[in-house]
Specification:
single chain, 170 residues, DNA Polymerase III, Chain A, domain 2
């Protein structure tokens, strides 16, 4: 599964980023420095419809061991995670947009587009990059769009996954 809780913010500030967003057939998670967008079918197959919008706390995702789950079921506003032995590992509460604030950022609007450009040097947190790769796949392609622009990361095999990583300024 996908360790999305590693990307979710877990701080007391910017609490709107503590959530994993499920909407428009995608799962989006960010902490403000990095973001991952995956098709909902790669995280929660057969659990949500195309029109639903819900939020799960990243810490709850971790506590319920969703990142190691092999299967999910849903009853109302609860997700049940099961391991490969079909044992229940935990439950996540689904929150509505109104319950978690209306401030979740539009990640798609900050993903660089166009042709990548050469950069002479760029600095980024390697642990943040590793966490992204753990979520999207293990054959990353890093695309640079300038020294002060987010780095776009995609996977050679998981072509539907997309991520960004903000550089560190020095």
């Amino acid at each position: 599964m996908k360790p999305l809780h590693l990307i979710a913010n877990n701080k007391s500030y910017r609490q709107d980023l503590n959530f994993i967003k499920i909407a428009n057939n995608t799962v989006t998670v960010t902490d403000g420095y990095r973001a991952v967008i995956l098709p909902v079918s790669q995280v929660f197959p057969d659990v949500f419809t195309d029109t639903e919008e819900f939020y799960i706390l990243g810490e709850e995702f971790k506590t319920a061991k969703c990142h190691t789950a092999s299967r999910f079921t849903r009853e109302g506003n609860k997700i049940f995670a099961y391991n490969n032995k079909q044992q229940l590992t935990g439950v996540c509460n689904l929150k509505t947009k109104e319950e978690c604030g209306d401030n979740y950022p539009d990640i798609l609007s900050v993903i660089p587009s166009g042709d990548p450009v050469p950069v002479s040097s760029i600095y980024f947190n390697p642990q943040f990059a590793k966490d992204i790769v753990d979520c999207i796949g293990y054959k990353p392609i890093y695309e640079f769009y300038g020294e002060s622009k987010p780095i776009r990361i995609r996977d050679q095999e998981n072509t539907e996954a997309i991520a960004i990583l903000c550089p560190i300024y020095h």
